[in-house]
Design goal:
Blueprint: E1 15-21, H1 25-35, E2 39-40, E3 49-50, E4 55-61, H2 65-70, E5 76-80, H3 81-87, E6 92-97, E7 107-114, E8 129-132, H4 135-144, E9 150-153, E10 168-173, H5 177-181, E11 184-193, E12 195-199, H6 201-205, H7 207-226, E13 229-237, H8 241-245, E14 255-258, E15 264-272, H9 276-286, E16 288-295
Length: 301
């Protein structure tokens, strides 16, 4: 790991945190909000305001965050596994955060070619031109396969380059819809990526900053775990309790509490939001009353 210079200026709080500007910005701000951090930034500002005095944030492109974390310009940052891989720089992985600009799932860098091309596998691209923003990772991929080809940096609009400006592309995709819309088909995945919270050696070795990073990671993971979950509360007569409980799924089992009326119990459960449309009427038929559905911001397991 690259050595970091630790000075008095770089020790203790606040933690200097790089947040991704661009496509991941909105999803990141929303995740922090669900985790309990209020972030706001002006249209022309690169310095988000936060209600946490132990945090100092700056907006930077995700591609650059590994470099600035590694050289100590910032203590930590939110970036992608793809950009850490691409930079080939040493940073400490604090936590993997399974979210992206369009949802809570990994993303893929894929090798794609025109639908009507004869290319069926990576080896078919020997001697061809590949356009991508992920240049070094793509070069390492083809070098490992011993496939000679020209990998060129793409400044954007990569999907429109085949077949006239490139023979194939390596592009980021979540659903594949943009590739299909541009008459491209995937022939191979070269890297699966997710969002990372990373830090440099100096920050990770600083007790206060490490503790802060671990707390942030816990809260962000809790916000991700709560995605798609809701809580349900209800009252159930004791003589109908078994039938209601059989309908419920939970992390372990529903919480059942006594009520002042000994003939009734209070039942609480965390469940998938997508199931409650059908579940609530079924619970009502089984004897549950006073059913309350409430959203979850965090789920710490």
């Amino acid at each position: 790991m690259t050595a970091q210079r630790v000075t008095k200026k770089n020790t203790g709080l606040p933690l200097r945190l790089g947040l991704p500007k661009g496509s991941l910005q909105e999803a990141t701000f929303e995740l922090f909000r669900r985790a309990g951090f209020a972030l706001s930034v002006g249209a022309r500002s690169y310095y988000p305001q936060t209600d946490d005095p132990e945090l100092s944030a700056i907006l930077i492109r995700a591609q650059e965050i590994p470099r600035y974390v590694n050289n100590g310009a910032i203590d930590a940052g939110i970036t992608g596994l793809d950009w850490v891989t691409e930079s080939h720089l040493a940073v400490t992985e604090v936590s993997r955060l399974l979210y992206s600009k369009a949802g809570f799932r990994p993303v893929r860098w894929v090798l794609a070619v025109p639908n009507d091309s004869a290319f069926r596998k990576a080896e078919d691209l020997a001697g061809k031109r590949i356009a991508t923003e992920l240049v070094e990772t793509t070069r390492r991929f083809f070098a490992a396969r011993k496939i000679p080809c020209a990998v060129e940096f793409s400044w954007g609009a990569t999907e429109v380059k085949p077949p006239d400006l490139a023979d194939a592309i390596v592009e980021l995709t979540e659903t594949g819809s943009s590739l299909r819309a541009n008459n491209l088909r995937i022939i191979e995945t070269i890297l699966e990526s997710c969002t990372l919270l990373v830090a440099n050696a100096a920050a990770w070795g600083d007790a206060a900053k490490r503790a802060k990073l671990e707390k942030i990671a816990l809260l962000l993971q809790g916000a991700i775990a709560a995605q798609g979950k809701v809580g349900l509360k209800m009252n159930v007569r004791r003589d109908r309790l078994d039938g209601v409980v059989r309908l419920l799924s939970a992390l372990h089992s529903p919480t059942i509490s006594d009520q002042a009326d000994t003939g009734w119990a209070a039942v609480e459960v965390v469940t998938d939001e997508k199931t409650v449309r059908d579940l609530i009427p079924t619970l009502k038929e089984a004897g549950a009353q006073g059913i309350i559905e409430y959203p979850l911001n965090k789920l710490i397991v």
